[in-house]
């Protein structure tokens, strides 16, 4: 099906890739199961569904009686284009939107902004790529394809209708009919920014009018609090983006796109873009609430009815709700590419340069919050592995492990020394004891409130408070109670690392206060519940990561087109190599220094 659709359009290599939305929202084409209209520009042929889509009640009843979840046959022109380029010997590059932290030796880890060579894009969700000497699988939704691939395409023959090669002298063509000049490259990037903003506005409108509007009519199914959890402040984002697009359109030079001056638009709206922080911070809550609701069939049928009534492309609601998260992370990559092809003499150069720095700061803040929210599962699992835990959970006050390591603690009254493992979180320092026989087992001993402490560097020699000789030592002194804790490291370097860690802990606390970062009670309880379930099964198993799982699962599962409707089943995500990492969770804890 997809091959036929792909060859009905112009040669794929002549078209710049589209990066408007998550993989699947910007497909060149696929066939719909209802009446099979072809999507060739990312938008659904609305006339094709007019006669067959009835009222919400009809759809709802139809879905309820059919008792299954619909999915699309999958595929997309962009994916075919990538594989065609790769098979022809071209080098295809993608840029990472987010960090991909992995502990699987078959997966490729990277940080936001890293450039990845895409070597195989056959699978929609997981691609195979290379960074320097490392190769592995990575989630396709975590990257954005470059608009202008650095490898020149003049060396590769262009295909024309009929499948024959074009041996004409048009060797200067790239990404369409333009010349391979810096101005043409800038034109490609400008066109991408404008077109993807228009597509993005349509997706936001569909969410607000197709889902939120319908949900508000069903007070028997949704409370206002639930809608706020699921959709966050996406209506505010929609209003902001509409104004932003209008500003871009005014700066867009249709006749000569490379002369467009769009940098000032990003600078003008950089403050307003901070509303994305609230949305991204809430997104894990939305994922968990959606996961809970869609365990009930009537909600699955209702959301699908909303999608079809709005004539939206075949992406599940969680996929649409991910688009704002991805969009704000794509701006720095788009601006970086725009700056690359903007001459220093161009009137837009300084504004684009400033806009890139501004949007990097916005994306960095959001990316950091996302990483912190993903870490809470690991913290909860770590706590569940500690024996004899006492007092409140770590997550009640903390959300980040700053540093960990072994130290000698010296206590009053007889200056008794003890070897202990210490874990420094924001706001608190947790002390544990290793098991005498099994050194991978830890027992909880105590904790220190870091908000009340000041750090004192102790010189080597005799300490007057404890009346003993010390080396590589430092103290924690409580301002209120005058209580003093003395610690010694094995080497001077270890002491310096701890002193630096205490500085980082205070800096992290201050930054969280300034940015308003916090973890909701729902997120804390869910993380501890997941850890508790895993702990009580009696054997280690894979981490439960609702937010991470939703990032992986943006689209409906791929369904075989030959399968009758009555026999549609949910199919598994791409298989990943089984890892024995969590079988060694105690020894290979992610909190090792």
TrEMBL record:
Sorted keywords for this record are: Cytoplasm, Guanine-nucleotide releasing factor, SH3 domain
| Pfam assignment, any one | SH3_1
- GO biological process, any: intracellular signal transduction
Cite the PROSITE patterns for this sequence: DH_1 (PS00741), DH_2 (PS50010), PH_DOMAIN (PS50003), SH3 (PS50002)
Alphabetical list of SMART domains matching this protein:
PH, RhoGEF, SH3
Q: Which InterPro entries match?
A: DBL_dom_sf, DH_dom, GDS_CDC24_CS, PH-like_dom_sf, PH_domain, SH3-like_dom_sf, SH3_domain, SOS1_NGEF_PH
Ranges where the DH domain occurs: 185-369
- Keyword Cytoplasm among record annotations: yes
Q: Which SUPFAM superfamilies did the record assign? A: DBL homology domain (DH-domain) (SSF48065), PH domain-like (SSF50729), SH3-domain (SSF50044)
Q: In this protein, which residues make up the domain named PH?
A: 400-507
Q: What ranges does the record give for the region Disordered, renumbered to this chain?
A: 156-178
For this chain, one GO molecular function annotation is: guanyl-nucleotide exchange factor activity
The subcellular localization recorded is: Cytoplasm
Compositionally biased tracts (Basic and acidic residues)? 156-167
- Coiled-coil annotation reads none
- Provide GO CC annotations from the record: cytoplasm
Protein name (Swiss-Prot/TrEMBL)? ARHG4 factor
Organism of origin is Psophia crepitans (common trumpeter)
């Amino acid at each position: 099906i997809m091959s036929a659709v792909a060859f009905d359009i112009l040669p794929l290599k002549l078209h710049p890739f589209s990066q408007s939305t998550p993989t699947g929202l910007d497909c060149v084409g696929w066939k719909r199961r209802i009446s099979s209209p072809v999507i060739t520009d990312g938008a659904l042929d609305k006339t094709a569904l007019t006669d067959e889509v009835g009222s919400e009640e009809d759809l709802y009843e139809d879905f309820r009686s059919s008792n299954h979840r619909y999915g699309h046959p999958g595929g997309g022109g962009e994916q075919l284009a990538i594989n065609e380029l790769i098979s022809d010997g071209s080098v295809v590059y993608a840029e990472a939107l987010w960090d991909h932290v992995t502990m699987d030796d078959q997966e490729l880890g990277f940080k936001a902004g890293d450039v990845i060579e895409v070597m195989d894009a056959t699978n929609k969700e997981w691609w195979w790529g290379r960074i320097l000497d490392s190769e592995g699988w990575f989630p396709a939704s975590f990257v954005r394809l470059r608009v202008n691939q650095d490898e020149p395409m003049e060396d590769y023959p262009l295909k024309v209708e009929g499948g024959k090669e074009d041996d004409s002298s048009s060797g200067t063509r790239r990404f369409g009919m333009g010349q391979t000049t810096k101005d043409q490259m800038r034109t490609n990037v400008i066109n991408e920014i404008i077109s993807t903003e228009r597509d993005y506005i349509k997706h936001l409108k569909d969410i607000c009018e197709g889902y939120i509007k319908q949900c508000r009519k069903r007070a028997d199914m949704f409370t206002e609090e639930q809608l706020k959890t699921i959709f966050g402040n996406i209506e505010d984002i929609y209003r902001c983006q509409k104004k932003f697009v209008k500003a871009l359109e005014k700066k867009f030079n249709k006749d000569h796109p490379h002369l467009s001056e769009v940098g000032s638009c990003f600078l003008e709206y950089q403050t307003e873009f901070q509303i994305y922080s609230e949305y991204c911070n809430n997104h894990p809550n939305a994922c968990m609430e959606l996961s809970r609701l869609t365990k009930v069939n009537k909600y699955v049928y209702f959301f699908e009815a909303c999608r079809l009534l709005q004539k939206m492309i075949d992406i599940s609601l969680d996929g649409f709700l991910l688009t704002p998260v991805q969009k704000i992370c794509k701006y720095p990559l788009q601006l970086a590419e725009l700056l690359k092809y903007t001459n220093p003499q161009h009137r837009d150069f300084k504004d684009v340069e400033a806009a890139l720095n501004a949007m990097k700061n916005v994306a960095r803040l959001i990316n950091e919050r996302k990483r912190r929210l993903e870490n809470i599962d690991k913290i909860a699992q770590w706590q569940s592995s500690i024996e004899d835990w006492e007092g409140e959970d770590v997550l009640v006050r903390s959300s980040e492990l700053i540093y960990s390591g072994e130290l000698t603690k010296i206590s009053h009254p007889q200056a008794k020394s003890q070897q202990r493992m210490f874990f420094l979180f924001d706001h608190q320092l947790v002390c544990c004891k290793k098991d005498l026989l099994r050194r991978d087992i830890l027992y909880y001993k105590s904790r220190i409130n870091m908000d009340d402490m000041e750090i004192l560097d102790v010189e080597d020699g005799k300490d007057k408070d404890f009346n003993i000789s010390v080396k590589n030592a430092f103290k924690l002194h409580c301002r209120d109670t005058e209580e003093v804790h003395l610690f010694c490291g094995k080497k001077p370097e270890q002491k310096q690392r701890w002193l630096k860690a205490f500085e980082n802990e205070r800096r992290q606390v201050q930054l969280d206060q300034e940015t308003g970062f916090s973890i909701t009670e729902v997120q804390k309880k869910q993380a501890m519940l997941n850890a508790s379930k895993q702990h009580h099964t009696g054997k280690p198993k894979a981490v439960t990561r609702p937010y991470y799982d939703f990032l992986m699962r943006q689209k409906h599962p791929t369904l075989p087109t030959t399968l009758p409707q009555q026999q549609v089943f949910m199919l598994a995500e791409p298989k990943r190599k089984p890892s024995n990492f969590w079988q060694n969770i105690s020894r290979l804890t992610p909190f090792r220094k």
